[in-house]
Amino acid sequence: MSHHGWYDRLMKMHTAPKKLLSRSVELVWSHYGERYRVDNDLNFFREGDAGWTAWQPDPSSSIFSSAADMISETRWAAFLEFAPMPVRRLLEQFDVGRLGVLAVVAYCPGLVADLLAAPALAPFVAEHTRLRGLAASHWEEIAAVHGRGGVYALLEWLGLPASRQTLTILQRIAEPDLGRRLLEPIRAALWEPETIWLLQHTPTLNEQALRHHCQATLAA
Questions:
Q1: Verdict on whether the full-model pTM lies above 0.85
Q2: Please, what is the angle between helix 62-70 and helix 98-107, to 10°?
Q3: 116: CB partners within 8 A, 6+ apart
Q4: Alpha helix (H) ranges present in the chain?
Q5: How is the beta sheet containing 51-54 ordered, strand by strand?
Q6: Whole-number Å distance between alpha carbons of 185 and 190
Q7: β-strands 34-38, 27-31: how paired?
Q8: With contact defined as beta carbons under 8 Å apart, do 64 and 99 qualify?
Q9: pLDDT digit string (tens) for 29-75?
Q10: Side-chain half-sphere CA neighbours of 180 within 13 A
Q11: What residues make up the domain containing 49?
C-alpha cells in the first residue's frame, strides 16, 4: 500500500534484521461479532463473509473502544517489538488511545516526528472525523496538508489555532493520552487568550489541570 512507503523506510532504519525475517505478531480484537486485525506492516483488516479484507479505520468509532478493552498490554508489548524505535517511543506514551495513534502512524507516517515533539497532538489527529464532523476518515488529506504546510497547517486543518503558543501548550501536556470528551473543550479553550495564558503558566499540565482550565467548555 502506497501510504506505507515512509513507514517501510523507518522499518529498515530502526528494526533489527532478525525481526524483519519473522514479523508475525498481530493485534486482533472483535466488535459486535466482527473481527478486526492489524499486522506488523500496519495494514488494517476486517473479517467478513469473504474472509479478511482491507479496512480503512476511523479511530473515533466504537470499534476502537472495543480494541482498547480487548488488546492486552502483553500483546501490545510483543507487537511493538517489531515497530521502528520512533514509532515505539510514540505509542508507548498512550494506553486507551494507542490503537488510534497507530492508525495515524499507518496512514500518515510523515507525522511521526511532529507527534513525537508534541504527543498530545496525536489524539486530535486520530479523532479528526468527529472533531470536524466528517462522515469518514480523511487520511490522505491530512498527509497532503501536513506535506504542504507542516505542523501549523495541520493545526489549522484540525480547527486549532495555528500558532507557536498552541504547539508549546500541546508539547507541555504531561499525559498525552487525552480522553475523547476532553479534546473539543481543549480546542475551544485554545482560542481564548485568558485560558492560553493560564495553560502556559500551569506548572504541571496534566489531565486534571486541563479539566480545571477547560471547565466552562466541559460544562456547556
A1: yes
A2: 120
A3: 86, 89, 90
A4: 5-14, 17-20, 62-70, 73-80, 85-91, 98-107, 112-117, 121-126, 128-132, 139-157, 164-172, 180-189, 193-200, 207-213, 215-219
A5: 27-31, 34-38, 44-48, 51-54
A6: 9
A7: antiparallel
A8: yes
A9: 999 999 999 999 999 999 999 999 999 999 999 999 999 999 999 99
A10: 16
A11: 2-219
- Determine the Cα–Cα distance for residues 22 and 159; give it in Å rounded to an integer: 42
Q: Which three cell numbers stand for residue 206?
A: 496534566
First-to-last alpha carbon distance for the chain, in angstroms, is: 43
Q: How far is CA 172 from CA 58, 204, 216, in A?
A: 27, 8, 21
Strand partners, 31: 34
Residues 130 and 158: their CA atoms lie apart, in Å, by 10
Structural domain count of the chain: 1
Q: Which residues, listed in sequence order, are joined to residue 46 by a DSSP beta bridge?
A: 36, 53
- Cell 497532538 locates to 121
> Torsions phi, psi of 174, nearest 5?
-80, -25
The three-state secondary structure class of 202 is: coil
Assign 215 a pLDDT band (cuts: 50, 70, 90): confident
